[in-house]
Amino acid sequence: MNCLGVEQFPDYKVPGVQHVDFSPYESNGGSIVAIAGEDFVVIAADTRLSSGYSIHSRDQSKLFKMSPKTVLGSTGCWCDTLSLTGLVKVRMQMYEHTHMKTMSTDAVAQMLSIVMYNRRFFPYYVSNILAGLDKDGKGAVYSYDPIGHCERATYRAGGTAGALLQPVLDNQIGYKNQNLPADQLPPLTKERAVAVASDTFISAAERDIYTGDSVLINIITKDGVEERKLQLRKD
Amino acid sequence: MFRNQYDSDVTVWSPQGRLHQVEYAVAAVKLGTATVGLKNRDYAVLVALSKPPSELSASQRKLIPIDDHLGISIAGITADARVLSKYLRSECLSYKHSYESAFPVSRLITNLGNKMQTTTQRYDRRPYGVGLLIAGYDEKGPHIYQVEPSANFFNCVAMTIGSRSQSARTYLERNLSDFINCSKDEIICHGIHAIRSSLPNDELLSKDEGASQLNITIAIVGKDQPFKILNEEENIFYLNMAKKRGASNIISKPEGDDDDNSSPGDEPEPSTRRDPLVAVATMENQ
Amino acid sequence: MMNNSFAQPMWSNGPSPGQFYNFMGGNAPTQLPRELTTAGPFGTKHSTAAITTGSSVVGIKFDGGVLVAADTLVSYGSLARYQDIQRVFKINNNILLGGSGDFADIQSIKRNIDQKMIEDQCYNDGVIMKPGELASWLTRVLYNRRSRMNPLYIDVVVGGVDETGKPFLGNVDMRGRAYNDYVVATGFGRHLALPLVRERKPKDRDFTFEEATNLIRESMKVLYYRDTRSIPQYTVGICTAADCSIKGPFKVEENWTFAETVKGY
C-alpha cells in the first residue's frame, strides 16, 4: 500500500516555528438574554467579539433578524454562527418562495433544530436563542444546545455568561421560590423586561471577560422590531 | 402534417438559414396573455394581464418573485416558466449565500440565456416555450430584460410580450421618451395604460367599471424597494389613478393583431422574420 | 464501479472505455478537487502548521477610504528568510487585501481571487467585486476548508470601498471567522496596534486621512520595535473612491540611541 513511502518522511521541522494542532473551534464569547411576554418578546446580546484575551471587535451584533417577527441570537464559535445563520437565511427564503408566506417563528425554531442536528458529529459550536412572536402573537423564546436540542421557554440566558445570568432571570422573571401571593408580583411589562435584561448584562460585564462593550436590545412586537443600545463596561 | 420539410428537429436548418422549431417555440409566447415591463430612473415595473384559461379555473400566476431585487413575468407555457424560475431562484440564492449581495441582473440573464441556448442546439431537447420579462434592480440601476425561447435576450427600456401585445407596444413606443423622468406612480400608470390598450375593445368596455376585474397584476422593484407584487388594495388604487390620469391615453385598437405573423411556410419572407423584431425600446436604441 | 483511472470518459459525462453509461443527465456527481480527496491508507492528515509566515497586517478606516499596511518580511520559522515581499495586494479598483499567516496559502488564495477578477473583466459589464463580497466569499471558502480539517493557515484583512464610495474594512481568519470594524489587525498587531489605534479614536467621527496615516506609521514603528518577526520596511495600500494603489516601501524611523542606557541583561 505504501509504495510511495510518503509516511516515512519526518514532519516538517523548522526551528522556531510554533507547532499547534489545528482546532476547528474557537470560543469568541458573548451572551444572550431573551424574555417573552404576552404580546412581545425582548432579546438582548452584547457586542463584544473576542478570543482568549484579545477583543477583535467591540461593535459586533450577535442578533440576526430572520423575519419581521423572528430574531435569532447566536454566540460561541463565530465562524459557526456566520455559517449557521447564513444557511438558515437561505432555507427561509426557499420556504418563502415555495409556500408564498414568511416562515413562522415556530417553524424557524423547528428547522433550526434539524439543521443543527444534521451536524451531530461535527457540531456547530454555538449557543442559540431564538425569539419571536408565535402564530397567536404571543412572545416565544426557544433555546438550543450545540447539537440541536430545542426547548421553548419564557425566558432564557445563553452564551459565556449564561450560567451567570439564568439564576437572575429565575428570580426576577420566573419569581422562583418567592413567598409572595401571585397578585403582589409585578406583572411582566415590556419596560420591566427591558430593564431586567439590561441589568443582567450590566452585572455580567462585571464578572465575565467575554461580555461587555455594549448591549443591543431588540423588542419584537406586532408592529415590528425596535432596537435599543446600551453601553457596558469596556474593560 | 408537417408545415414544411425542414422543421422535423430543432437542429435542422432550412435552406433560408432558419430554425423552424425554434421559431415555433418563439410563437408559443404569443399564446400567453400580455405583459408589459418598463422602467424609469429608479424603478422597474411589470404589469401583467391574467385571464383564467376557462370559466371554471382561476387565473394563472403571471408574476414570479425570484429574489429581493428581481422578479419575472411570463407569457407562454407556465410549466416551463416554473423550471426557469426555479433555476433563477437557486442561482440568486447561492450567489447571495456566497457574496452577501444581489446577483447582478445582466450576469444572471447571461447565464439564463446560456442555459436556454443549449436546448436550441440539441436534437434531444426542446426550447423553453415561454417568454420572460425580467424586472431587476442592482448597482447599475433598474433593468428590464426580455428573454425569448430562442435564448435571445434584450436589455430594454420598455417591452411587452404575449397575445395582442402589439397595441401595448404601440403605446410604449409613443410614450418612450417620457418614461425615464417619470415618477414612481406615473410609471405604474403608464404600464397599466399600455396593458389596457392590449385588451379587446369589448372587454375593455364591459369590465371598465370594476377596476379590479381587469385582472391586472402589478409588481415593482427599485431603489430601496424590494421586488413586490402589489396587493388588491394597491392594485385598485393604481388602476383608479391610471383611469383618472389618462382616459385620453387609451388608444384605439390598431387594425391587425400580431397573433400569427410568423410565417408557417418556408417561403422567403424577410419582413416577418423574428430576429430583428425588438425595435421598440432596447437599450441599444437609446 | 471499477477504478480505471487512466481511461478518460469518451465525452464529457459519458462512459469511460469499458464502462457503462451512467444515466445521470447533467447531474453527474462532480468529483471533489484533488486537494480535498487525497487519502492515505489510514485517512489523511493535513498540514498542521504554517511554514513560511508573514506577521502583522494593520488596517485602518478613515472618512472616505481605508489604509492597509504590512511589513515586507516573510519568515521561515525564526529565520528572516524573504525580506522584500509585498503582503498588501491590490485586488481591483475597489479592494485591498493584506495577508498574514502561511504565505504559500496566501499566494494560493490570491491566485483564486485574481482568477475571479479576470472573470469579472470578461463579463465586460462594468460590475466589479466589492470588498464586502470578497470578505463574504473568503469566509465561505475558509470555513469550508476548516470544516474538512484542511485549513488555509491565513489571517487576512480585506479593505476597500463599495460602489457608493463607502469604506469597508474587515478581517477573515483561517476558520472563516469574520467581522468588520474601523480598525483591524492580525498577528502581533492585534496586541500592539489595536489598542494604540482604538485609544485615538474620536467618539463622534471617523479618522481623517491624516490621522490614519500617522497611526499606521506609529503602529508599524511599534510593531518593528516589539515584534521579533518583523523588519523596518513596510508597504501601505490605500483605497478611496478615487484611487486604489500600493505605496512604498517605506522605512520605519528607527532610533536605537536608548539602547546603550539599557542595563541588566
UniProtKB/TrEMBL annotation, chain A:
- Entry's EC annotation: 3.4.25.-
Keywords, A to Z, come to: Cytoplasm, Hydrolase, Nucleus, Proteasome
Q: Which GO terms describe its biological process?
A: proteolysis involved in protein catabolic process
Query: Which enzyme type, at the first EC level?
Result: hydrolase
Q: Where are the transmembrane segments?
A: none
> A GO CC term?
nucleus
The UniProt record lists the keyword Transferase: no
Gene3D superfamilies registered for this protein in UniProt: Glutamine Phosphoribosylpyrophosphate, subunit 1, domain 1
Which branch of life, at top level? Eukaryota
Q: What is its main location?
A: nucleus
Q: Where in the cell is it found?
A: Nucleus
Question: What InterPro entries does the annotation carry?
Answer: Ntn_hydrolases_N (IPR029055), Proteasome_sua/b (IPR001353), Proteasome_suB-type (IPR023333)
Q: In Gene Ontology terms, what is one molecular function of this protein?
A: hydrolase activity
Quaternary structure, from the entry: The 26S proteasome consists of a 20S proteasome core and two 19S regulatory subunits. The 20S proteasome core is composed of 28 subunits that are arranged in four stacked rings, resulting in a barrel-shaped structure. The two end rings are each formed by seven alpha subunits, and the two central rings are each formed by seven beta subunits. The catalytic chamber with the active sites is on the inside of the barrel.
Q: What is this protein called?
A: Uncharacterized protein
Organism field = Drosophila virilis (Fruit fly)
- Lineage, opening ranks: Eukaryota, Metazoa, Ecdysozoa, Arthropoda, Hexapoda
Whichever gene encodes this chain, its name is Dvir\GJ12457
TrEMBL record, chain B:
Enumerate the GO terms in the molecular function aspect: hydrolase activity
Comp. bias intervals (Acidic residues): 256-269
Q: Which domain of life is it from?
A: Eukaryota
Q: Name one GO cellular component term.
A: nucleus
* GO annotation terms (biological process): ubiquitin-dependent protein catabolic process
Residue numbers spanned by region Disordered: 249-286
Where's the Proteasome alpha-type subunits domain? 6-28
Q: Which InterPro entries match?
A: Ntn_hydrolases_N, Proteasome_alpha, Proteasome_alpha-type, Proteasome_alpha1, Proteasome_asu_N, Proteasome_sua/b
User: Where is it located?
Assistant: Cytoplasm; Nucleus
Alphabetized PROSITE patterns for the sequence = PROTEASOME_ALPHA_1 (PS00388), PROTEASOME_ALPHA_2 (PS51475)
A Pfam family name for this chain? Proteasome
Task: Kindly state which keywords UniProt assigns to this record, in alphabetical order.
Answer: Cytoplasm, Hydrolase, Nucleus, Proteasome
How this chain assembles, per its entry, is: The 20S proteasome core is composed of 28 subunits that are arranged in four stacked rings, resulting in a barrel-shaped structure. The two end rings are each formed by seven alpha subunits, and the two central rings are each formed by seven beta subunits.
UniProt family annotation: Belongs to the peptidase T1A family.
Query: What biological function has been recorded for the protein in this entry?
Result: The proteasome is a multicatalytic proteinase complex which is characterized by its ability to cleave peptides with Arg, Phe, Tyr, Leu, and Glu adjacent to the leaving group at neutral or slightly basic pH. The proteasome has an ATP-dependent proteolytic activity.
What this protein is called in its record is Proteasome subunit alpha type
Automatic annotation (TrEMBL), chain C:
One Pfam family cited in the UniProt record for this chain? Proteasome
Q: Where in the cell is it found?
A: Cytoplasm; Nucleus
Q: Which UniProt keywords apply?
A: Cytoplasm, Hydrolase, Nucleus, Proteasome
GO MF, one annotated term: hydrolase activity
UniProt feature coiled coil, ranges: none
Biological process terms from the Gene Ontology for this record are:
proteolysis involved in protein catabolic process
What's one GO-annotated cellular component? nucleus
Principal localization reads: cytoplasm
What job does the chain carry out? Answer: Non-catalytic component of the proteasome, a multicatalytic proteinase complex which is characterized by its ability to cleave peptides with Arg, Phe, Tyr, Leu, and Glu adjacent to the leaving group at neutral or slightly basic pH. The proteasome has an ATP-dependent proteolytic activity.
Q: Subunit notes for this chain? A: The 26S proteasome consists of a 20S proteasome core and two 19S regulatory subunits. The 20S proteasome core is composed of 28 subunits that are arranged in four stacked rings, resulting in a barrel-shaped structure. The two end rings are each formed by seven alpha subunits, and the two central rings are each formed by seven beta subunits. The catalytic chamber with the active sites is on the inside of the barrel.
Question: Which PANTHER family did the record assign?
Answer: METALLOPROTEASE TLDD (PTHR32194), PROTEASOME SUBUNIT BETA (PTHR32194:SF6)
What is the protein named? Proteasome subunit beta
> What gene is behind this protein?
Dvir\GJ10047
